[in-house]
């Protein structure tokens, strides 16, 4: 019986085991130990777990210890690592006697002690060897009998608790098999016991945890219990489970801290991650003496170890950062009093330690690729070092004071001695901190190193903003070290990014730093520019703003030479918000007053006196002539007020600068090509390229908050808008300039200057561009009717408008109008002229008329005024034929000579004759009447009076008026008819020359307003030569005509007068019997299809040229309808035979006549008139023959003049009865 | 303080681009803890139209868990959407909505 020594401590992670105390034959066991220990963990076992946790394959490793009664665990044992999971009794006894006498007793004792300690996990191993058998041949029992005996003695129902191992030291298949089954058995039993005991342990642990609210509960005690579990998992290589235990502890601790608080004195030596288990701290915890930081440190070191086992180093960094933040918070929460800077030390050391640990387990490439995980620690360490440096007086130009040194010593003392692990290494967080705090130079070196490392990393992973923040912190360091030059670059970089992203508060903060920096550097201009920006920054307090404003004013007030003048951008000082022109057209004639009102929003906190405010002007000679009139109208579109939309200053909210250009939208319509119906409609944005432009990729170019003021080129323009001594109050100010307007042209406002002592604020570009125009105008004379249309025959008003332009009308200047006969100017004494701009006054015009020229003296008028006067003119109506057809008269061309020009102005006015007249001759047998129709074509109503008709040549002729009224109303667009009967004594002259005359005036005007109107006309061949009488005779035996029956038409042509002289010569010929005859052609034509002409419808008659000569013609006609039918038309025409025509001059009308004849023929054709065909044939044959001979002589038909033939039966009607047997009624409904 | 905010945008961008690559449209708007510092915790949230919300919580405030922050963001987002739906609101102008102010200050008071 011997006992193996048990380990004092749980074995470390590299070993896995389950402790198994052994009893029985020690020498036998010793011989088998090595191979047993080796072979046991070789095969994995499936570990089924309680609480539904997933089964796992684990390798079991065992530590064998000799059985001692005192090693058995007592009640309430919390140690799991040293727990004996399985008790084994080894025996090689094969002798029954020996068994009975010794072994059995020993076994019984062993069993009893096990039972006493409540352990039911045991196994008895019987080893059989052939040697043993051979040695004791006599007492040999069958092998099985010993085993059976043991089984029956001890394992009453658990046969598996006794195992046989055969020939363990032999190399035979039998021995191998027996080994395997033993191992399997051992593993199974071990695992069973392990699971059972672990479960019990976990239950106990939970019970313990539940008691945590009871008084006297110790976290450290519980910590040890749960850590035991973690160790077990760790040894089973279940790191995940182990980590869970620590995480649970961590969470519980946080809770515990929050609920109860813990603490005490502690050192700040930082995390220690080099050892897998920091036994020093663990002991502290075990003793319940650990401080909060100790506990946290220990927990984290364990978690770190496990995470690295789990190949999750990046989680370590993340957890580390969380831990550090958390610890700092917890200490604050617990109000633990700590030496100032101690926490910083702890954090700094811990950061470096974690980084060191990570670097130790990763290669360079991995580290570089995972900067994003480590950079937080770097930055944190940098931060902490900086605050330590500041605390210890290391961040300054000077050496630290003794007080600082004392503090440093205290801090370093708190670190304690360096740990043995790192004492010998060249670099360690401990050494680094110590060195950094040793001197100003060393601190600077370390701090810069860390800062740059952090910045580099941030840049590498694209966190530029973070990099800039580190830079800014670095800049603060440099400022403390009085090295503004280096600080500025970092600050400017940070500022640029804040400005471009519109973060106003950081902008203000950084700008303040820059201002301090620039002041130190002595860069006056930059400093003043920054000061101006800050003075207008609403994020600052008024006091601060006043301070910066005063900085500028102080500089401005310094008397110095010219070279010290400083030019600053105006945008930061004051903003041009509005510009207003008066007059609003922004267009004046040269010399006129044009005012420009600027609205400036002053951003300064106090009122600022400005010596001079000026705007430079670019002058452009106007293109395209000097006619300001058209330009002036064009200007109307440009409003007189220009609003300047400020891209907001840095201090403003970021959104407004990001608003971008306004959308330009257009409507689109998609129409179907076939029927133009609307398919779809929508809105398109025309300037997408501007609107959608990325704003974050580049800073907008128009922000005035550039870091340094823009290069301002001051253009000294010859012309300027200037105001002296203005005081700008904070907020909006209105300043009025008077703009120069001497020369005509375009004036563009370019730049704005404000001079305050030595400082000049310049707005380099006024945008949108603002310009005004000064124009010069030529004098212009227009003459137009006062009212349209001008009526001829009546005095009409004409308006003269003179725009004087640049010309001054002097006294004695006159317009010379050349007189024309058709349009006299009616001088009037009361003619006044109006001079306006807008209204100046009136003055009387004097008009002198001579024979050729009318001279109008103009009153003196200043330039750019309008002179207006009315003149009465009359256009005479020409009587008779020269009158144009469209009643339009143009008064020729009147020329006006103006004093300002050597050229005459031609004046053309169009007048309209108000009336249209027509005349006609009416006959009744021999009696003659003359009718005149006057139509009013104008829009005016007139009164007609004194209507008269006279004949010029024949005094004997009497024209008797049949008009009853002396005055007649002639309304617009109406007509008046007048009638006279012609009476004569001897002979009626064949030619009458008449003059119609009337007085007219517009309605409701007095007698004096009447104007004469004349109308001449002429009648020829007035006398009635023939009368035609027609009669329709019903068929024989009938009383009335019947439709469908032929009736007779009797036409009787009678000569009424003796031949006149002219007539004889003209168209008569002497017959063979000496009687003078003339040939007439008659023709019956029924245009309304009432009649059918049967047989001859036309014919020739020879009429003797003597009074009362009569010719009768009988023609058969048939009425086609019943009723009162008008007579068919009978035409009588002169027939001029070709022989007679020889003497007549050919005239172009002949052809027309011929045409009418053939038309006539055509009509006759329809009725099948053979005679007419014949006659046509003859006519044609003759005509064609003549044409061949002479080309001019052909027979002609000539109509009589109106009044020469009088038709008695012109509108006569005859009654036609329907056909007798008509039983069919035809009804035409139309 | 606003410097933190500014730098937290770095992380926002990083997260957006990372999420954009992996999930496409089906992304979670809540970005989680962006930027822990000693004194503050910065949480981020990005709408589908890339409007970013950031909530900064004092580190000592332990009552606010991830879920509470998430619901705060959701509330904020809803209210913000309402503001944007206002036809009189010009996108880009500072928000001047009493309702929005109320929601925000309500959350502030609630979290204390």
Largest interface, C-beta closer than 8 angstroms, per-chain residues? A-B, 31 and 21 residues
Shape of chain A: elongated
**Helix coverage percent of residues of chain B?**
40-55%
Q: Decide which structural class fits the backbone of chain B.
A: alpha+beta
**Strand arrangement across the biggest beta sheet of chain B:** 1-2-3
Rounded to the nearest angstrom, the distance between the terminal CA atoms of chain B is 18 Å
Q: pLDDT average of chain A, as an integer?
A: 75
Please state roughly what percent of the residues of chain B sit in beta strands, choosing from under 5%, 5-15%, 15-25%, 25-35%, 35-45% or over 45%.
15-25%
**Count of β-strands of chain B:** 3
Q: Give start-end ranges of low-pLDDT stretches of chain A.
A: 1-19, 261-265, 624-637, 648-659, 695-713, 1140-1192
Oligomer: heterodimer
- Radius of gyration based on Cα positions of chain A: 68 Å
Give me the secondary-structure category of chain A: alpha+beta
Biggest β-sheet strands, sense, barrel of chain A: 7 strands, mixed
Counted by DSSP, the helix tally of chain A is 29
| N-end to C-end Cα span of chain A | 151 Å
Walk me through what this model shows.
The complex is a heterodimer of chains A (1230) and B (112). Chain A is α+β, with helices and mostly antiparallel strands. Chain A contains 29 helices and 55 strands. In chain A, strands 8, 10, 12, 16, 18, 19 and 20 form a 7-stranded mixed sheet that branches. In chain A, strands 21, 23, 25, 26, 27 and 30 form a 6-stranded antiparallel sheet that branches. A 5-stranded parallel sheet of chain A has the order 4-1-5-6-7, with helices on both faces. In chain A, helix 9 packs antiparallel against helix 10 (313-333), helix 17 packs antiparallel against helix 18 and helix 19 runs antiparallel to helix 20 (504-521). The longest helix of chain A has 38 residues, at 173-210. Chain A is elongated and about 205 Å long. Residues 1-19, 261-265, 624-637, 648-659, 695-713 and 1140-1192 of chain A have low confidence and may be disordered. Chain B has a 3-stranded antiparallel sheet. The radius of gyration of chain B is 15 Å and the shape is globular. Chain B starts with a helix and ends with a helix. Chain B is an alpha+beta fold. In chain B, a hairpin with a 5-residue loop joins strand 2 and strand 3 (52-58). The longest helix of chain B is centred in the N-terminal third of the chain and has 22 residues, at 2-23. The A-B interface holds A 258, 321-322, 324-325, 328-329, 332-333, 372, 380, 458, 461-466, 469, 472, 498, 501, 503, 505-506, 509, 653, 655-656, 658-659 and B 1-3, 5-7, 9-11, 13-14, 36-38, 59-60, 62, 90, 92-94.
């Amino acid at each position: 019986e011997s006992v193996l020594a048990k380990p004092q401590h749980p074995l470390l992670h590299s070993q896995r085991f389950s402790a198994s105390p052994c009893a029985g034959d020690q020498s036998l066991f010793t011989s088998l130990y090595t191979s047993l220990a080796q072979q046991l963990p070789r095969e994995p076992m499936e570990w089924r777990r309680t609480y539904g946790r997933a089964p796992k394959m684990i390798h079991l490793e065992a530590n064998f210890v000799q059985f001692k009664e005192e090693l058995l665990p007592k009640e309430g044992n919390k140690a799991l690592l040293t727990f004996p999971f399985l008790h084994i009794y080894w025996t090689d006894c094969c002798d029954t006697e020996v068994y009975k006498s010794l072994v059995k007793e020993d076994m019984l004792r062993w069993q009893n002690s096990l039972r006493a300690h409540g352990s039911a996990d045991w196994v008895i191993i019987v080893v059989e060897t052939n040697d043993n058998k051979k040695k004791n041949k006599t007492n040999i029992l069958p092998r099985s009998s010993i085993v059976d005996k043991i089984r029956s003695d001890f394992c009453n129902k658990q046969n598996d608790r006794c195992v046989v191992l055969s020939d363990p030291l032999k190399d035979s298949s039998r021995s191998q098999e027996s080994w395997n089954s033993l191992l399997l058995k051992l593993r199974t039993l071990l695992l069973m016991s392990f699971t059972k005991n672990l479960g019990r342990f976990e239950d106990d642990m939970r019970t313990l945890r539940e008691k945590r609210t009871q008084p006297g509960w110790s976290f450290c005690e519980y910590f040890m219990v749960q850590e035991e579990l973690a160790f077990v998992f760790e040894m089973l290589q279940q790191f995940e489970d182990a980590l869970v235990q620590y995480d649970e502890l961590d969470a519980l601790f946080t809770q515990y801290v929050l609920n109860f608080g813990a603490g005490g004195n502690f050192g700040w030596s930082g995390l220690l991650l080099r050892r897998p288990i920091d036994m020093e701290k663990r002991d502290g915890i075990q003793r319940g003496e650990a401080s909060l930081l100790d506990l946290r440190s220990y927990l984290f070191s364990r978690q770190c170890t496990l995470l690295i086992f789990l190949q999750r180093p990046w989680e370590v960094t993340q957890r580390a950062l969380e831990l550090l933040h958390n610890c700092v918070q917890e200490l604050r929460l617990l109000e633990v009093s700590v030496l100032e800077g101690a926490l910083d030390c702890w954090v700094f050391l811990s950061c470096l330690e974690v980084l060191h640990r990570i670097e130790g387990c990763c290669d360079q490439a991995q580290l570089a690729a995972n900067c994003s995980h480590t950079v937080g620690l770097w930055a944190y360490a940098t931060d902490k070092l900086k605050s330590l440096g500041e605390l210890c007086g290391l961040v300054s130009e000077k050496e630290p004071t003794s007080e600082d040194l004392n503090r440093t010593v205290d801090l370093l003392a708190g670190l304690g001695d360096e740990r043995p692990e790192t004492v010998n290494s060249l670099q360690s967080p401990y050494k680094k901190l110590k060195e950094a705090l040793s001197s100003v130079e060393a601190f600077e070196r370390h701090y810069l190193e860390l800062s740059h490392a952090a910045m580099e990393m941030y840049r590498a992973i694209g966190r530029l903003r973070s990099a800039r923040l580190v830079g800014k912190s670095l800049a603060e360091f440099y400022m403390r070290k009085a090295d503004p030059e280096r600080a500025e670059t970092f600050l400017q970089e940070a500022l640029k990014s804040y400005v471009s992203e519109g973060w106003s508060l950081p902008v203000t903060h950084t700008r303040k730093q820059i201002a301090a920096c620039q002041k130190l550097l002595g860069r006056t201009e930059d400093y003043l520019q920054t000061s101006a920006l800050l003075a207008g920054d609403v994020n600052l307090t008024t006091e601060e703003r006043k301070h910066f404003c005063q900085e500028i004013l102080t500089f401005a007030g310094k008397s110095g030479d010219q070279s010290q003048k400083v030019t600053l951008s105006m945008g930061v000082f004051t903003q041009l918000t509005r510009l207003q022109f008066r007059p609003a057209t922004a267009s004046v004639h040269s010399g006129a007053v044009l005012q420009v009102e600027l609205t400036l929003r002053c951003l300064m906190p106090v009122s600022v006196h400005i010596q001079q405010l000026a705007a430079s002007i670019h002058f452009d000679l106007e293109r395209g002539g000097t006619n300001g009139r058209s330009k002036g109208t064009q200007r109307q579109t440009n409003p007189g007020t220009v609003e300047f939309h400020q891209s907001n200053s840095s201090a403003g909210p970021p959104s407004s600068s990001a608003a971008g250009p306004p959308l330009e939208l257009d409507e689109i319509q998609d129409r179907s090509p076939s029927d133009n119906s609307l398919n779809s409609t929508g809105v398109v944005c025309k300037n997408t390229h501007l609107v959608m432009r990325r704003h974050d990729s580049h800073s907008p170019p128009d922000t005035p908050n550039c870091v340094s003021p823009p290069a301002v080129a001051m253009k000294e323009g010859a012309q300027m808008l200037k105001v002296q001594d203005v005081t700008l109050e904070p907020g909006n100010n209105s300043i009025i300039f008077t703009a120069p307007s001497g020369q005509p042209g375009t004036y563009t406002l370019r730049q704005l200057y404000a001079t305050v002592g030595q400082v000049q604020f310049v707005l380099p570009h006024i945008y949108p561009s603002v310009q005004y125009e000064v124009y010069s105008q030529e004098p212009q004379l227009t003459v137009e009717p006062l009212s349209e249309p001008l009526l001829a025959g009546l005095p009409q008003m004409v308006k003269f408008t003179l725009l004087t332009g640049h010309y001054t009308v002097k006294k004695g200047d006159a317009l010379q109008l050349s007189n024309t006969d058709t349009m006299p100017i009616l001088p009037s004494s009361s003619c006044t002229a109006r001079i306006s701009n807008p209204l100046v006054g009136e003055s009387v015009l004097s008009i002198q008329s001579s024979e050729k020229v009318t001279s109008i003296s103009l009153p003196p008028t200043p330039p750019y005024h309008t002179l207006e006067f009315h003149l009465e003119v009359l256009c005479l109506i020409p009587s008779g034929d020269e009158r144009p057809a469209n009643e339009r008269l143009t008064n020729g061309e009147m020329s006006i000579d103006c004093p300002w020009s050597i050229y005459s102005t031609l004046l053309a006015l169009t007048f309209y004759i108000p009336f249209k007249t027509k005349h006609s001759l009416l006959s009744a047998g021999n009696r003659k009447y003359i009718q005149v129709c006057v139509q009013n074509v104008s829009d005016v109503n007139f009164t007609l009076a004194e209507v008269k008709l006279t004949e010029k040549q024949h005094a004997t002729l009497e024209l008797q008026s049949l008009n009853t009224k002396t005055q007649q109303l002639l309304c617009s667009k109406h007509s008046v008819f007048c009638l006279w009967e012609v009476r004569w004594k001897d002979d009626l002259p064949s030619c009458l020359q008449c003059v119609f005359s009337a007085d007219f005036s517009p309605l409701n005007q007095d007698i004096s307003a009447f104007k004469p109107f004349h109308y001449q006309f002429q009648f020829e061949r007035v006398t009635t030569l023939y009368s035609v009488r027609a009669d329709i005779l019903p068929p024989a035996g009938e009383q009335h005509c019947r439709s469908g029956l032929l009736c007779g038409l009797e036409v009787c042509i009678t000569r009424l007068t003796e031949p006149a002289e002219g007539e004889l010569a003209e168209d008569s010929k002497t017959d063979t019997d000496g009687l003078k005859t003339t040939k007439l052609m008659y023709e019956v034509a029924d245009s309304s299809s009432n009649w059918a002409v049967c047989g001859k419808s036309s014919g020739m008659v020879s009429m003797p040229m003597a009074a009362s000569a009569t010719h009768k013609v009988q023609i058969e006609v048939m009425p086609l309808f019943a009723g009162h039918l008008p007579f068919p038309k009978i035409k009588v025409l002169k027939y001029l035979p070709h022989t007679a025509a020889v003497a007549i001059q050919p005239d172009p009308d002949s052809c027309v006549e011929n045409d009418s004849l053939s038309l006539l023929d055509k009509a006759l054709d329809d009725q099948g008139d053979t005679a007419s065909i014949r006659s046509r044939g003859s006519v044609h044959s003759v005509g064609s023959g003549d044409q061949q001979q002479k080309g001019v002589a052909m027979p002609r038909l000539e109509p009589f003049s109106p009044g020469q033939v009088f038709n008695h039966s012109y509108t006569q009607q005859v009654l036609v009865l329907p056909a007798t047997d008509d039983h069919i009624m035809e009804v035409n409904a139309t | 303080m606003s410097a933190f905010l500014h730098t937290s945008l770095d992380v926002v961008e990083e997260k957006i681009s990372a999420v954009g690559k992996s999930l496409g449209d089906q992304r979670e708007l809540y970005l989680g803890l962006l930027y822990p510092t000693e004194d503050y915790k910065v949480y981020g949230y990005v709408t589908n139209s890339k409007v970013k919300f950031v909530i900064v919580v004092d580190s000592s405030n332990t009552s606010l868990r991830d879920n509470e922050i998430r619901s705060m963001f959701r509330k904020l987002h809803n209210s913000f959407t309402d503001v944007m739906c206002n036809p009189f609101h010009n996108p880009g102008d500072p928000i001047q909505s009493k309702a929005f102010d109320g929601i925000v200050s309500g959350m502030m008071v609630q979290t204390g």
